[in-house]
Amino acid sequence: MHAYSVHDAKTNLSRLIDEAVHAGKPFVIAKAGKPLVKVVPIDTPDPVRPIRIGFMKG
């Protein structure tokens, strides 16, 4: 897991979030060399299609 300074994270936040989401790579944001937060992608289930009962009924 890679650690970024607050300044680097601010500068590259969009790219870091894209990496976390698409590549599944969490990262840490540190200040003065001390880890502050860990950014981890959320596992979201595939959306469930609602069951439409009777929509083909005549």
TrEMBL record:
Pfam annotation, one family: PhdYeFM_antitox
Similarity comment text for this entry: Belongs to the phD/YefM antitoxin family.
Purpose: Antitoxin component of a type II toxin-antitoxin (TA) system.
Protein's name in the database: Antitoxin
Species this protein is from: Burkholderia paludis
Upper classification of the organism: Bacteria, Pseudomonadati, Pseudomonadota, Betaproteobacteria, Burkholderiales
